[in-house]
């Protein structure tokens, strides 16, 4: 088999709020590990896709987030190129689609409703018996602090929805607030790699929202079950490299996933994660290369 050439596309800095360095580091470390596996890696900024420039490599790994980048990569996939994470999977991780897919596939998730930002939250929250809750922009990932907001009453909810509407955000997801330990996790599908930790213990934060649940108490939970439902979520959303957050209930240790992301920073476990990410990309590309020569 000839040496495999792969394009690596970095994430635009505006899509790495408070994590520009960490996102750049996991990308670079993964590229290094792929080169150790014998691959040639040509690196590109996300702006190449946004500007409509052509990428010629048949195989692509990427951390893109801009909607224009995602659409371009989807076009490449439609033409038979191998893209990791799939651009369709990246799109599935936007809030509204993620919520619908997790709920439809019985992945443990908070009670949630999807609303238009011009809706009356008072009526909706009463109908669904929601009090303290989280309001999250439905069309995209969190870029600004207000894109994920904890609200304590319907007046605050109204204010957030109005702010979204002014910003041109047409829909939002409202999740019930879950009491318990906040756990952050990282994984690579179809490998043995899975890492979790309490962000309150590591002072790991993007917008400081972890303080709502407070310091983790170390509630006992089934780690194998957490890994299993996370891999099920990754399969449902069609992504290979993932991370997210869950809440472990103080009452019974029940685990529910509250957020799921395509290719996060892996900051606390970067070196071991990069090795597994590179191995997974290499396996997928090698498989595609084998089929292409049959």
Walk me through the structure.
This protein is of the alpha/beta class and 294 residues long. The chain has 3 domains: 5-85 and 269-292, Rossmann fold, CATH 3.40.50; 111-176, 2-Layer Sandwich (Dna Ligase, domain 1); 180-262, ATP-grasp fold, B domain (D-amino Acid Aminotransferase, Chain A, domain 1), CATH 3.30.470.20. The protein has 10 helices and 12 strands. Strand 11 and strand 12 (255-262) form a beta hairpin. The protein is globular. The protein starts with a strand and ends with a helix.
Structural class: alpha/beta
Q: Spatial order of the strands in the main sheet?
A: 2-1-3-4
* CATH fold group of the largest domain: Rossmann fold
Name the beta content range: 15-25%
Q: pLDDT average, as an integer?
A: 91
| Shape estimate | globular
Number of domains: 3
Number of strands: 12
Low-confidence stretches: none
How far is the N terminus from the C terminus? 12 Å
What is the radius of gyration computed over CA atoms, rounded to a whole number of angstroms?
19 Å
Pattern of helices and strands: EHEHEHEHHEHEEHEEEHHEEH
Number of helices: 10
Largest sheet: 4 strands, parallel
Level of helix content? 25-40%
What is the correct CATH architecture of the largest domain?
3-Layer(aba) Sandwich
The CATH class assignment of the largest domain is: Alpha Beta
């Amino acid at each position: 088999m000839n040496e495999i050439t792969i394009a690596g596309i970095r994430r635009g800095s505006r899509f790495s709020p408070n994590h520009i360095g960490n996102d750049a580091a996991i990308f670079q470390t993964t590229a290094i590990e792929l080169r150790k596996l014998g691959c040639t890696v040509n690196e590109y900024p996300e702006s190449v896709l946004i500007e409509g420039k052509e990428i010629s490599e048949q195989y692509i790994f990427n951390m893109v987030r801009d909607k224009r980048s995602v659409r371009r990569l989807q076009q490449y996939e439609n033409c038979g190129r191998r893209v990791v994470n799939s651009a369709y999977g990246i799109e599935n991780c936007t809030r509204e689609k993620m919520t619908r897919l997790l709920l439809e596939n019985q992945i443990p998730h908070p009670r949630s409703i999807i609303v238009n930002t011009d809706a009356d939250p008072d009526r909706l929250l009463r109908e669904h018996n929601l009090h303290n809750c989280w309001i999250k922009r439905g069309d995209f990932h969190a870029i600004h602090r207000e894109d994920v907001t904890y609200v304590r009453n319907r007046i605050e909810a109204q204010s957030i929805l109005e702010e979204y509407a002014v910003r041109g955000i047409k829909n939002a997801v409202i999740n019930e607030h879950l009491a318990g330990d906040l756990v952050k996790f990282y994984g690579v599908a179809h490998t043995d790699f899975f890492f979790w930790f309490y962000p309150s213990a590591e002072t790991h934060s993007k917008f400081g929202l972890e303080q709502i649940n407070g310091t983790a108490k170390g509630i006992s939970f089934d780690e194998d079950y957490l890994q299993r439902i996370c891999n099920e979520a990754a399969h449902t959303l069609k992504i290979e490299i993932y991370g997210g957050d869950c809440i472990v209930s103080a009452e019974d240790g029940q685990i529910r996933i509250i957020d799921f992301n395509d290719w996060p920073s892996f900051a606390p476990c970067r070196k071991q994660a990069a090795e597994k990410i590179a191995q997974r990309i290499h396996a997928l590309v090698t498989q595609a290369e084998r089929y292409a020569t049959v």
